[in-house]
Amino acid sequence: MTMATEELSARYDMGEKYLSSNDEKEQRHGVEIIGELAIEGYMPAQTELGYLYRNGWYVPKNSQKALNWFQKASEQGDIEAIVGAGLVYSDMEDDEKAFILIKEAAEKGSATGQRLLGELYEDGIGVTADSYEAVIWYRKAVQQGDVAAKYFLGSIYLHDNNIEEGLRLTEEAAEAGNKNAQDDMGDYYHYGTYSDKNLDKALYFYDKAASQGVANSQTEIGIMLQNGEGIEKDEAAAINCFKDAVEQGNTIAKVYLGLAYICGQGTDVDEDKGWNLLTQAADEGNVVAMVSCGRQAYDLADSGQYDEAETRNYLEMAGSYFSEAAKQEDAEAQWRLGWMYIRGEYFNQDEQAGIELFRKAVNQDFSPAMVALGICYEEGIGVPKDKSTAISYYKKAAMQNDEEAIDALKRLNAI
Description:
Number of strands: 0
Radius of gyration: 29 Å
Distance between the termini: 93 Å
Structural class: mainly alpha
C-alpha cells in the first residue's frame, strides 16, 4: 500500500468512525470526509456515498445521486457498487434492470450479489421464479460466509422437507447472529416444529432475537413469562415484553397486552387501553381479537343499559366481528354468529344460516356448537325435531365434559 493510499484509507476510516457516532455534528463531519474522498476518486468512499444516498443515511435520500456514485465506483472495479446500483433500481421498481446488475455482481463473485440473486430467483422478481437456481446462488454465497444466505437456504430445505440440513443451516445462521434465524429457531423449539420441544433452547434463541428488536420473539418471551412456561412466571415482566413488541406494531402482542389490561393480569386494570389495543388488532385481522371484540360488543348489547338504537349498533358491531372471524374458520365465532342469525340479532332471522355455521364449528370439534345443534334438533329450530339426533350431538359434547350437554342428557334420561 502506497503512502497516498494509506492516507486515503486512514481518512476513510476516520469518516466511518464519525458516521457511527451518536453525535449529529460528528455524523455530518463524517459525511463531509466521505464526500471529499469520493470526489477525489477514492473507490470505497464512492460506494459508501452511494449507499448513504440510497438509504437516506445522514443525507437526503436521492436515488440519482446514489446511482451516479455507484457508477463511478463500479467503473473502478468495485463489484459491491454494482450490487448497490441494482438495489437502487429495485427501489425504483425497475426489476429487470435490478436483476441484470445483481446477476452481473453475483457472477463476478460478490457474496451479497449471489445471495440477492438467490432471492430474486426464489421470489420471481425480474426473472421467472426458479427454486433450483435460487439454491445454486444461495450455496455460492454460503461458501463465501454470507450468513443471510445460509438462513434463506435453510428455509428452502425445511420447506422441501430436508429437515436435518435445513435445521443445521438455520441454527448456524442463528448462532452467527442472524435475527430472523434466531426468531425461527425459537419458534421451532417452542412449538416443536421440525424438532422436539425444548423450552430452554427456545428461550435462548428468542432472547438473542429479542435483543435485536425482533417483535415476535419479544411477544413469545412475554407469553412464556405470563404462563410460567420454561421460565419462572412473571406477569409484570411479560407486560414489558408485550409493550416492547406493541411499539413495533406487533398484532399478537396487542392482543396479549389488551387482554392483560382488561383482566388486570400483571398490570392495573385499564379497560379503555385494553379494548383500544384489541380493536386495533381486530382491524389488523387478528382472529382472537375479533372474537374478543365481538364478545365485548355483544355483552354491551345484552346488558340492558342502552336504548334500542344503541343496542342495535352493538349487535351489528358484534355480528361484524364474528362474521370476519368466522370467515377465517374460527369455531367460536361461527357458533356465536350462528345464534345471532337464529335469533335475528344480525340482519334478518335466518335459521338455516345459523345451522350451517353450527355445523362448521362442529366439524372443528367445538363442543358448544354440538350443544347448539342438539338444542335445534330437540326443539325443531331450523331442522325437523329429532330427539335421537339431538341426543347424539349432546353425547358428542358430553365426551368433552361439556356441562350443558351433560345436563341435557340427564333431562332427556339419556344417561
